[in-house]
């Protein structure tokens, strides 16, 4: 029997069992539903470890202790990881491209969070891609890949499953790659390649249903990085 447990329960248990442990809540665990990115901004995470403010009240539970840092606890809808590498060592160019494709930027890609890093002699635009809620009309114009129904996968539909899948969409790896390639060309830079780490939301759903039916709950452990 599976016992229901809340994020607060998990956080409180960790605080009780680990001396110096402190945490902040994000996503579904946070009362204001703030994203992990927003909570990280509040503590200065993106400015580097030395800039993190452990005393500003950003800790929701536990004692504030620089020695042990701070842990984020929360949940969100499935997050895809898609990394696009461009043929340059100019980090400033990579940062401009990353900023342009972020969902928070004008003309950016919905649900995309992006940063640029040096990577094997080139620059990688690393993207976390969140699924986002949409209207029925927008769903018809979704940038997601065409979806299989549970029947096409060979499974029985569960209550509300297809409705939820239609309501939440995401920017596809192909769309991200095309946008990065376009912006890179404008800078006179070529595309090296794209790596999808893990699964797209649709592939994760398909494999979960399929492997649970087959009794193979650990199939994900053997999944390799997909290169496009």
Describe this structure in words.
32% of the residues lie in helices and 22% in strands. The protein has two domains: 7-75, no CATH class; 79-227, Alpha-Beta Plaits (2-Layer Sandwich). By secondary structure, the chain is of the alpha+beta class. Helix 3 packs across helix 7 (173-186).
SSE string, helices as H and strands as E? HEHEEEHEEEHHHEHEHE
Number of domains: 2
**CA-based gyration radius:** 20 Å
Structural class: alpha+beta
Fill in the CATH topology of the largest domain.
Answer: Alpha-Beta Plaits
InterPro entries: Formiminotransferase_C_sf, FormiminoTrfase_cat_dom_sf, FTCD
Keywords: Transferase
GO molecular function: folic acid binding; transferase activity
Region (Disordered): 137-157
State the main characteristics:
228 residues; alpha+beta; Alpha-Beta Plaits; 2 domains; 5-stranded antiparallel β-sheet; 3-stranded mixed β-sheet; 8 helices; globular; folic acid binding; transferase; Putative formimidoyltransferase-cyclodeaminase; FTCD; FormiminoTrfase_cat_dom_sf
Give the SSE layout.
Blueprint: H1 7-17, E1 22-27, H2 36-43, E2 61-62, E3 71-75, E4 79-86, H3 91-101, E5 112-119, E6 122-130, E7 132-133, H4 136-140, H5 150-153, H6 161-167, E8 168-169, H7 173-186, E9 191-197, H8 201-214, E10 226-227
Parallel strand pairs: 1-3
Antiparallel strand pairs: 1-2, 4-6, 4-9, 5-6, 7-8, 9-10
Helix pairs in contact: 3-7
């Amino acid at each position: 029997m599976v016992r229901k447990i809340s994020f607060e329960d998990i956080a409180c248990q960790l605080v009780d069992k680990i001396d110096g442990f402190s945490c902040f809540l994000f996503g579904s665990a946070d009362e204001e539903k703030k994203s992990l990115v927003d909570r990280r901004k509040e503590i200065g995470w993106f400015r580097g470890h030395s800039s993190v403010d452990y005393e500003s009240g950003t800790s929701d539970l536990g004692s504030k202790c620089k020695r042990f840092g701070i842990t984020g606890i929360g949940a969100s809808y499935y997050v895809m990881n898609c990394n696009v590498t461009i043929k340059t060592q100019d980090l400033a160019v990579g940062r401009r491209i990353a900023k342009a494709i972020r969902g928070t930027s004008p003309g950016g890609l919905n649900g995309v969070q992006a940063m640029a890093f040096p990577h094997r002699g080139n620059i990688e635009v690393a993207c976390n891609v969140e699924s986002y809620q949409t209207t029925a009309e927008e769903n018809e114009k979704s940038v997601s890949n065409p979806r299989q129904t549970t029947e096409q996968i060979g499974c029985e539909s569960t209550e509300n499953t297809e409705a939820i899948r239609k309501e939440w969409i995401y920017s596809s790896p192909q769309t991200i790659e095309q946008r990065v390639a376009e912006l890179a060309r404008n800078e006179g830079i070529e595309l090296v390649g794209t790596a999808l780490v893990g699964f797209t939301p649709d592939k994760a759903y398909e494999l979960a249903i399929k492997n649970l039916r087959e009794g193979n709950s650990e199939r994900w452990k053997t999944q390799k990085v997909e290169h496009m």
